[in-house]
Specification:
Shape: rod-shaped
Number of strands: 5
Structural class: alpha+beta
Radius of gyration: 39 Å
Helix content: 40-55%
């Protein structure tokens, strides 16, 4: 039986054309027995990742402030300056500051042009014409940028009345903002606090820079001695209303006790002391520049 089947199939022969077509058919169906290579996504992913890093890294590089300029009259503004000397942040620290910021379009300007726009603003110019004071404070930063900015600010205020330039420690930024104040106004608060320890940040927040300076002008420069003599003589103290009366009473008692134990001649000399000596003179009618913290 098997021999007959084998003999029957042995007589079947395929022509060359049939064989060729069969080979092509099988090759098409089996893809030539070759394994298809998958698509390699690694170069695409690498390119996409590089693009993302470029976009977000460039955004951070451009929009991160590397210096700050605080501008205070009664409006209080802070400008964040990037490494390319462009204004990338405009922050207001009181209602007047918010109104002023809303009226300006200074973002992405060079800082010199931006500060000039602020000083030339109608509201700011009107305040300065009324003998108000503008303080421009440059926060110290690494490198030479803050030094260059301060020099440019001095040139910028040269033609403006009652305008002053300062530097301040960058470590004062966080506490200033914690008290809801610009860095420039906080620097003024620290200066006044040295002379009037009872002053509070809340009081400073509602004061103009002129009012702060006027209070500084009324404080003695010597280590409290003249302040006690003025209080003993019945003169008003800039700290009155903030523990000033109590301080005045203590000062009166201290001075009176000392006068009892000293010769009359010395007491007379103390009474004739020049009350203007030792005062910190901050007011200038014109432009000026003050450095330091």
């Amino acid at each position: 039986m098997n021999d007959r089947i084998k003999e029957a199939f042995g007589q079947v022969q395929a022509g060359e054309e049939l064989k060729d077509r069969t080979r092509k058919f099988l090759a098409q169906k089996t893809r030539g027995y070759k394994k298809q290579r998958g698509i390699c996504y690694q170069p695409v992913l690498s390119a996409a990742l590089s693009l993302l890093l470029l976009v977000f890294g460039g955004h951070w590089f451009y929009f991160t402030p590397t210096a700050k300029i605080s501008i205070d009259v009664n409006p209080s503004l802070e400008l964040g300056i990037n490494r390319f000397d462009r204004v990338v942040v405009v922050e207001a620290y009181n209602e007047d500051g918010r109104e002023l910021a809303a009226s300006l379009d200074i973002r992405f300007m060079g800082y010199q042009e931006a500060v000039s726009r602020i000083l030339e603003n109608d509201k700011v110019a009107a305040l300065l014409s009324q003998d108000e004071v503008v303080a421009i404070t440059v926060m110290e930063s690494k490198g030479s940028q803050s030094v260059r900015i301060l020099s440019d600010m001095e040139s910028c205020v040269a033609g403006h009345q009652n305008a002053y330039c300062y530097t301040a420690d960058s470590r004062e930024v966080a506490p200033a903002h914690a008290h809801g104040m610009s860095c420039g106004k906080y620097r003024a608060f620290l200066e006044l606090q040295k002379l009037c320890p009872n002053i509070t940040p809340e009081e400073i927040q509602g004061m103009t820079m002129r009012e702060i300076r006027d209070r500084m002008d009324g404080m003695p420069g010597e280590a409290g001695g003249q302040h006690h003599r003025e209080a003993a003589a019945g003169e008003s103290s800039p700290c009155a209303g903030n523990g000033g009366e109590e301080e005045k009473q203590q000062a009166t008692g201290n001075v009176a006790g000392k006068e009892e134990s000293l010769p009359d001649e010395n007491a007379k000399e103390r009474g004739q002391a020049d009350p203007s000596k030792g005062h910190h003179r901050y007011r200038h009618h014109g432009t000026g520049s003050r450095h330091g913290r």
